[in-house]
Here is the input.
Amino acid sequence: MALRLPAIMRTTAARLSALYFILFALCAVLLVFYMTSLSASMLNTQTMETINEEVQGLDSAYRRGGLPFLVRVVEQRSRQPGANLYLIADSNGRILTGNVESLEPGVLEADGWTDQPFNYQRYGEGSGERRAPSVSEIEAPPAATETRHAAIALVSRLPNQMIVLVGRDLGEPERFRGVVRQALIFALSMMALGGLLIWFFVGRRALKRIDRVSEAGARIMGGDLTGRLPVTGAGDEFDRLSENLNTMLTRIAGLNEGLKQVSDNIAHDLKTPLTRLRNRAEAALAGDRDDAGYREALEATISESDRLIKTFNAILMISRLEAGYSAEALAKVDLAIAIHDVVELYEPAAEEVGVSLAAPVEGSFVVDGNRELIGQALSNVVDNAIKYSAGSSEKPDVRVSIAAGGGEISLKVADNGPGIPDQDDRDRATERFVRLEQSRSQPGSGLGLSLAKAVMKFHGGRLELLQGNPGLVVVMTFPSAKGE
Amino acid sequence: MKILIIEDDREAADYLEKAFAEAGHTAHVARDGETGFALADSGEYDVMVVDRMLPRRDGLSVIAGLRSRSNTTPVLILSALGEVDDRVTGLRAGGDDYLTKPYAFSELLARVEVLNRRATARETETMYRAGDLELDRLSHTVRRAGREITLQPREFRLLEYLMRHAGQVVTRTMLLENVWDYHFDPQTNVIDVHVSRLRGKIEKGFDSAILHTVRGAGYMLKAA
Here is the structure.
């Protein structure tokens, strides 16, 4: 910006105040102009009516008593105080009587209304050149330094060519205009003062609060995520804004905490296999081996790093699901088909370890979801069920069932293994990297159920672990598809 | 096979170039999108391996550009992004396969060999043969040495995929992706059990092995 306004003018409150002031002032000026012009024309009409009445009066006086009576009446009226002008002149324009001393030339030459206001001098104000009539005391305009005045008049001729002028001084409307001007200046200055006061008390207060919010924001951005924006308790827009921003900050802090936890977990749980990997490579180098020995060590290294990659992918997946996956990936998924596919995939593996895997599912159970994610969650749960029921009972058995009701679809995976008798353990089992004591002997990353839980949460559903009789029952509850 | 690698990471590109050479292929490396596009535009490559994030021109834009010029060279996209959506965008841009970093070279090699356009012609064949093993894709029947073998539908699709790529290494993830249409790693190696079941059906009672396990890589269907 080429023109740099002072800091105060760059605040919204000052700008708004100035704008309001200008608008109101404009309105006031327009209104006053309209009103004055209206009143001026009214005054004008009134003046002309007065003059007409006077003329009629003089006319009847002339008719009653001829010229002498007219002169007497004029003289009498001239002596009365007021703004009226009276003049009788002969056909040469010589003033015979009245309260006018001199006139602008040419005023008496045309009959009828004077085209425009003319200047005149009242009797006794000028040089006094004209012979003074019997009119001796004429009220001088108060405190007039300018002895010439403006007036309008009606000029008429008597049958003997004498000229009679009746007029009225325009000083009164002039004064009226002056009063209006003064009132206008006063009103405008009051408005300016009012605007300033409003800006000072309202605008500045609002600004100060915004400044406080900005300061708090800057502090928080500076790294102090525990800081919160001030809430005054007034319940106004500023409080609502602060509250919303505070809620957002809490959410950010929560996510941050989650992130920290994940990185702690990664640090802890990836370090172990990484150390193992390193040790294995070191041991391979240290010992004196033949080709087959080296090959074996390298293969072990590769499979260890593959496991690491899998764990890493699972962690990433969980984090992304928890952060909210894009909704584009959602489509109609029939859970009956999903169950069929997963069971079909696992059935040979289950049979291999002597577990009977059955899914007596009929019909169609449609949810809004992602086939891939649901497949992965279900396969993790089924995988677990097979793993923990295998060898732990006479006839290991995993049963997948499904039921709909109340706008929800519940998918159950029940095994007849040992289950997790302790409620706290069941709660902890779905946490990241948590591997319960009983499961330490089994291979796994400790992420299978966490991932399944994250998938369920992503679908707006939930994953619950229940103790069966015997065994563990994993219930995956989905909201039914919209429009189904 | 002539392979074009478009990858900006020097170490990764050098490793791939050498590894492909050891596997008996010729590989050329382009280190940015523009150079890669210019090289690929010649149309002399059998397969391209394209990294998604490249300097000067994004990998997906390179592929889309080639496709709009009617270049049909098979493309495998390499990416550090591995979400379902990312894969879908990659394939939609004209990629033929998608592999997430980090990957095993054996996996990449197997996929590149399968993508080789000289091999993909088999898609349209209705009868696959490998030695005395025959698979009729129209009547859904499998015979070995004239004897009919009954297979479950999934076993049929598994064998169909293996036979389409007979003589080539097929990895477990490739099977999971192409036969089951899943793109995740099952915790247990369920694929191995399926393969060994199939192997039982097509090898038991016959003189020679035909479905081989390739250590550290996957499986290969090959008549002795």
About this structure: Residues 190-203 of chain B form the longest helix (14 residues). Chain B has eight helices and twelve strands.
